[in-house]
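Entry:
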Amino acid sequence: MNRREFLKKSAMIGIGAGVLFLPKGLKIIASPAESAESYPDLVALKGGGLEAMLDRGMKEIGGMGRFVSKGQKVLIKPNMSWDVAPDGAANTSPELVAAIVKHCQAAGASSVVVMDHSIEYWDNSRKVSGIDDAIKSVGAIYAPSEKDGYYQKVSLDGKTLRETMIHEALLECDVLISAPVLKHHGGAGVSISAKGLMGCIWDRRDYHSMGLQNCIADFMHAKKPDLNIIDANKVITRHGPRGGSPNDIVDMKSLLISTDIVAADTAGAMMLGRKQGEIEHIRLAAEAGFGEMDLSKIKIERITV
């Protein structure tokens, strides 16, 4: 892709990023909800720092206490697979990870665990990403993932994925919060919440050998996130999932929060300029009943911070 093509693609992505902040057919909640039924399904925020957007978004969706009860074990699943510094946008922002941990602690969680099965050397990825320092700064627990002894074989009711080795932290948690960074992915099209859950398994080669898109969708038979918080601040728009240069990154300064993994991923994909239903694993997850892909059917709160 030459410079002219990239600029054209970036312009398209800019339009996609603005889609959630335009009124075309989207249902909007005008004021904070007062009952579970009236909470928005998706909160789309832009323009502020990540922690400020998280604070505002969590208030609109009912607060972390809606998802985490006193004494519960929480697992936060960010992207921290790559030996890339925060400005490279390959991993979830450490600022956001720390802020989510603090919300869980304030809600009374007995423990907050953070894990991702790194693709590059796990110790370097954890440290260079900045997430190691973030975890330590707020007293969260890092769950190591580099040995197969941390995983258990689980049978699934998927069409393609019938069993896989899943990390014990996922199997033991009471609450699962998916906290991916929004980015392009060369194989899956996009990497958001559903794709990010691949970091909970031992052997990614199984997915690639059996059918990546199908397996991503099938994994939700194991466990679906209770809450999805998508870091769309700095976004890799090409050469994902690791990125190649600063030219691959667009500053979107946005955050998505949703109880619906399919809606969250659909919105994220649209921010990357993809059409609704274009990403196969999102469409398959919707068809399997894991969430709503038609954003005109859900309640969306749009906020500029």
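The first helix runs from residue 3 to 18.
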